[in-house]
Amino acid sequence: MAAVAGVRALQRLHQPGTFQRCFGLIPVQLTPTCLPRRLCTAPTGSKERKQPDTSENVSLVENLNLMGVDVKMARLRQPGVLRKAFTNEQAVALFLDKKGAPTNMIASIISRYPRAITRSVQHLEQRWELWRKIFNTDEEIVNVLYRSPESFFRTSNNANLDDNITFLTSLGLNTKDLHRLLTTAPRTFSNSLVLNKRMVAFLEEICAELGGKNPEQFPKAVISRNLYILIRSTKRVRTNIDILRASLTLSNSELLDLFQGPGAEILDLSSECLKNNFLSLEQKMVAHGCQKADIKKLILRFPMVLYIGKDRLSTKLDCMLKGGITMEQIVRKPKVLEYSTQNISGRLKELKRVGYDFQEKGINVLDSSQKRFDAKIERLDEIPIS
To answer: Where does the UniProt annotation place the signal sequence (predicted)?
Structure first.
């Protein structure tokens, strides 16, 4: 019932006087940019209500319950927020409501990132304007907030956000690139500017070490392909480079080509995971008669294979081998491993039904969109099976 009450209350936040009716607070005149202090939670007098042993702010907890917030989750995530004497929960809720966030979304955002209610409306308005430099609509921002509340509310340093946008733009990243970054890896923008500059300088050093002629262009190439790279440590990236160099006996020029291309996507992978997945792939391929050169070819052609865990990789390979595909064909066209085992299995059954010969026609048919694959099957259905 508290959740329902919270939904109804939030739906009426923009109407005059509703704070008093919904939350038992004194109505005051709202201003466009900052809500008055009376709309923030303050501790009640000791004569009226005793604080529990946990020293939580009882009025705050009651307000959050009325708003439909999962207080248990909030308590687990950031317990210190519930002990604050002054918070801004209703002003934050009203701000998000005006930006188009549904009431259940507002409650979810606060439940998962309670620190949101400590931000002032003035701060939020400034931050929103900065995000609008990258996003076209408020709706896009609301969707990112719902997926990652921390990305918007984690820091109150709007100047740092502005500096990061300026810095990333200076690398040659355009608005589309920044949009992808903020949507996929929003923590990039709450990193300190110093931290982001450190990773960029590190990538430039790597390029120079590998004999690259344009180190200043290398960070852009890597970031464009790996949106998570700026929220990883330089130590992890360095370890992964060393693992790949040693495991595949790659030259400097081969490493440079790899990281300027699709290989950039595996630089942020956990080093332990990278090592284990490589060993699994190596063991499986050697068991099927492959040489080291074959393993190297497959990885250079499809580096994302190193994201596939041991069990999933083994299941996929077994599925294809049983379906009449050879390891030699997989090495030549490893991108087929990108598809799920269910997808591969279903396509193999369809191709078997129409008498498709992989040895004669190859496996390119497996690496196609569903629409193109269905069209191919439709054409093959019209050809009589000899």
So the answer is: none
Least confident of 59-73, 124-138, 149-163, 208-222: 149-163
Q: Which helix (H) or strand (E) holds 331?
A: helix 327-332
| CA dihedral over 187, 191, 195, 201, signed as positive or negative | positive
**CA pair distance 333, 80, nearest whole angstrom:** 54
Nearest to 351 by CA among 326, 329, 376: 376
Q: What is the DSSP string of 121-169?
A: HHHHHHHHHHHTTT-SSHHHHHHHHHH-HHHHHS---HHHHHHHHHHHH
CA distance 257 to 252: 9
Q: Is residue 309 within 8 Å of residue 280, measured between CB atoms?
A: yes
- DSSP H or E run through 332: helix 327-332
Which positions ≥6 away from 228 have C-beta within 8 Å?
A: 184, 185, 268
Q: Distance between CA atoms of 344 and 294, rounded to whole angstroms?
A: 22
Average the pLDDT over each of 27-36, 157-166, 170-179, 261-270 and give the range with the smallest value. 27-36
How many helices (H) does the chain have, and how many strands (E)? 23, 0
Tell me if 158 sits within 8 A of 124, measured CB to CB. no
Instruction: Of 142, 213, 224, 221, give the one whose Cα is nearest residue 188.
Output: 224
Nearest residue to 40 via CA among 93, 97, 91: 91
Tell me the pTM. 0.74
Residues across the chain: 386
